Amino acid sequence: MGKQPESESLTVRDNRTGKTYNVPIVNNTVSASAFKSMSAPKKEGERDENDTEKGLRVLDKGFMNTAVIQSEITYIDGDAGVLRYRGYPIEQLALHSSFLETAYLLIYGSLPSKRQLHTFETEVMHHSGAHSDAEDFFRSFRYDAHPMAILTSAFSYLGSYYSEANPSLQGQTLFTKRDPASISNMDKQIYRLIGKATTFAAMAYRVRQGRDFVTPPTGFSYTGAFLYQMDHLGEENYVPNPVLEKALDILFILHADHELNASCTTVLQTGSSLVDPYSAIAAGCASLYGPLHGGANEAVIRMLISIGKPENVPAFIEAVKRREKVLSGFGHRVYKTSDPRSFIVRRTADEVFKVTGKDELLETAMALHDAAMKDEFFIKRKLAPNVDFWSGLIYRAMGFPLDFFPVLFVVPRVVGWIAHWRQMMLQEGGVKIWRPRQVYLGSGKRDYEPVDSRPDAQIAPSPVVHSGITKRTNLASFKGKSKL
Ligand code: SDX
User: Fold this and answer.
1) Residue 330: CB within 6 Å of ligand 1?
2) Are 215 and 129 within 8 A, CB to CB?
3) For 277-308, what is each residue's pLDDT tens digit?
4) Which of 53, 244, 338, 474: CA 20 to 30 A from 322?
5) Is the dihedral of CA 269, 272, 274, 276 positive or negative?
6) Ligand 1, residues 84, 85, 292: which to mutate, most atoms within 8 A of Cβ?
7) How far is it between the farthest Cα atoms of the chain?
8) Is 177 in the pocket of ligand 1 (CB under 6 A)?
9) pTM for the predicted model, two decimal places
10) Which domains, from first to last, does the chain contain?
11) Is 97 in the pocket of ligand 1 (CB under 6 A)?
């Protein structure tokens, strides 16, 4: 890169030392490391732990304004409500593309030719089968285990089958090399992860239903095969409803990627240690499980159920304004006008309701949406519906259980996680482990005190009731019984 013109830079004057620094601006960005050279002598009485003489740090809790990677995959303009995958507007992809074609675009950077798409679809569907041992793994969960706990574990479990995909066993450069054999090995793991995402989701569902697992069928679309594996109970010539199959494909396109959201960042943070991709994807799955992120579509329905009828909406809105409740499905770190996906989800909902019948919570959702969109509290904070506000209504109308909703977010998002993971593995200059800094405000140096002379610590863990121990045992005597 040529020398930046003087105008394309930040001039920083450190008033502690009177020194001036020029920090180049590239792509509307300054390097946080540039501030490391801005050191100053420690002030009288200043804590050593401030490391003042070692240069400035940049504190950004929650990554409100910090870029941690350069990417070519997804672009979001939160003010204009724009979402593009590799430059293609989400509205066009939802209208014209399919989930697997969009997956190819996100991962490999361009829309495939007909031949390339067929090959990719064939490979993904070929790799949707699970090893028969996996049945014992899934059966090891209690019937009432949350499917997200099952799925998170399943991705990590899946990696244990493939020693050839484990950098800990094959060498740390396994996925950072660009030779044909390494790229082919990476592609095979990509087929496996996308292909088995639906199979594992369906297996997690069948555990809950107490049903046998269904071998992935041939001749179905990605979402068609998924619905088949979810619901087939031996009926002859079983074919999922095409409206539901298409609606799910559109929802999968909308949920495929969203640049550096919490779960994608988790995948990259984990992947930066050069661990295998299955472990990195499992970490991302765990992050998406949270109610602030992918768990929000489940939280929206629980919220609507708690509100009940539309006439209860005003009281709920007031409770939100008193910070007693959160309006799940509203707000977004990036979108400050509207989440473009929410409009497409809303339209898709109408198509689904034509075959499933309207969900009785729809009226409440619409009343809540309209009330919030007109209320100063939400307008002032730029809170608008996000992708999760309406999607839960579709999943409920399609008969999915509530705690399965985040699973329907994970399945497509595996593609986005893979796209970003692959991009990081193959990036120029290789992979540097992500190791953020901290601002230490804890105790200064202090010396150890012997236990006999120590007072009670200021904070102690709370005692718990040992529900598994009966009163009779508590009254019994036995060797080693605690005297305290
Ligand atoms: C997804 O990052 C992604 O791209 C995620 C995602 C993806 O595709 O990967 O888009 C998917 O996760 C969508 C978000 C789903 N989560 C929810 O719907 C949960 C409810 N939303 C909020 O928790 C919140 O809006 C977040 C977590 C989504 C965003 O939080 P931020 O950016 O940290 O915003 P904030 O908490 O600083 O809120 C700013 C203000 C605060 O009020 P003040 O303290 O300034 O007065 O708005 C308030 C917040 O209290 N606020 C809300 C609110 N969201 C924010 N108040 C009520 N209800 C809400 N939903």
Assistant:
1) yes
2) yes
3) 999 999 999 999 999 999 899 999 999 999 99
4) 338
5) positive
6) 292
7) 83
8) no
9) 0.94
10) 6-54 (no CATH), 86-438 (1.10.580.10)
11) no
